[in-house]
């Protein structure tokens, strides 16, 4: 009886698809986070988007060494504390970023001799982790300790140069002692596919696990653009690290680009994480394109006016959520759209059609366009939309796949290939575009 009641309750909660990134990720047992800048928390749209969509935050700069311990032994936690309190007040978890890194490191650290440097490093880790004890889900204990390129060597830094390879192990051991409840991560970039650098990190993590050096997770920054695209073995690379017995997390995701190309990349990264059981969450490196560290590449999920981009819908859909929440009418029926048809190619026996959907004077989150084909034409293939046929097999309704969210006046297109089947080659009758 109890078991049966439990099943009913579960199926009851599964009805409405999640409508935000955080809620959709939670249904998959994961978090969806963003980097946050303390000095933006006063901007209403920034904070509203943060609070609505995200379930985890990473301070973008506020927990770096130069921010927390600008001079030796004097700690300033104000900005970092603001972010942590904001997160805690809203049930978001916090990733701590980052304790030991060669960059954003105050000059005084680099001028210490080895003995002093060792105690300064351990003191920094201990002080900071104690300040936040029990409040940080995961710490990036060491960030970017390996060189780019084919050498697989450690990167030169004050820590590496004066303390040698062992500084990483020492940092992790000190971190475990300071806050045993926090997950301890190694974090890096250009380690997103198998290559000399990721192989070197892999060998280190394997060695740590074998020798009992405390490490719980590996972060993959995942900063992508045309020069550094999402590797084809992204999922396989996450999986091989997970197979070492650590969690993997996508920690600083941003993908330069726009439109459907960017959306597809984001969807692929999201799907890769979901396919790896130990991939426990995704963090994007900022809320809005306008404050991105790579702003000109528009690499994030919300544009400069906090409109959801196609990439947003692609991620939400990949997470199993739906931009309109599956409500009736979906999206609340606000806004308007128009549909315009063109034949983009034709040949004996067939043609390609394209429909451009344009939002009216308000942003929309979904649309649908009915197309009536002349029998015995058949639609062989369609793209950039989700096709559903009516009972008669002549009216095809196209709805968005990833491309439902359009800013005011913005457009998207879907297309299809038709075979005439010996009948006429007339294009379909295009019904009115509806925000349904
Ligand atoms: C970046 C921040 O986004 C910028 O605001 C800052 O000026 C430089 O650092 N790898 C990391 C992050 O681990 O801490 C970096 O963040 C981006 C690259």
In short:
The protein has helices at 2-13, 21-27, 44-53, 65-68, 78-89, 107-110, 114-131, 158-163, 166-178, 196-211, 234-242, 259-275, 310-318, and strands at 31-36, 56-59, 93-100, 138-143, 183-188, 217-220, 223-224, 247-255, 279-284, 337-347, 350-359, 369-372, 378-383, 386-389, 395-399, 411-419, 429-430. It is α/β, with parallel strands linked by helices and 436 residues long. An eight-stranded parallel barrel has the order 1-2-3-4-5-6-8-9, surrounded by six helices.
Task: Note down, in words, how this protein is organized.
This protein is 31% helix and 23% strand. The protein is built from 13 helices and 17 strands. The protein has an eight-stranded parallel beta barrel, surrounded by six helices. It has a four-stranded antiparallel sheet with strand order 10-11-16-13, with no helix packed on it. It is an alpha/beta fold and 436 residues long. Mean pLDDT is 92; it is low at 1-15 and 326-332. Helix 7 (114-131) runs parallel beside helix 9 (166-178), helix 11 packs parallel to helix 12 and helix 12 (259-275) runs parallel beside helix 13 (310-318). (3S,4R)-3-hydroxy-2-oxopiperidin-4-yl beta-D-xylopyranoside is lined by residues 60-61, 143, 221, 252, 293.
Order of strands across the widest beta sheet?
Answer: 1-2-3-4-5-6-8-9
Bound molecules: (3S,4R)-3-hydroxy-2-oxopiperidin-4-yl beta-D-xylopyranoside
Give helix % range: 25-40%
- Please give the number of β-strands: 17
N/C terminus separation: 41 Å
What is the C-alpha radius of gyration, as a whole number of Å? Answer: 25 Å
**What's the overall geometry?**
elongated
- Average residue pLDDT: 92
Strand content: 15-25%
What is the count of helical runs?
A: 13
Topology order in helix (H) and strand (E) letters? HHEHEHHEHHEHHEHEEHEHEHEEEEEEEE
Structural class: alpha/beta
Low-confidence spans: pLDDT under 50, at least 5 residues? 1-15, 326-332
Biggest pleated sheet: 8 strands, parallel, barrel
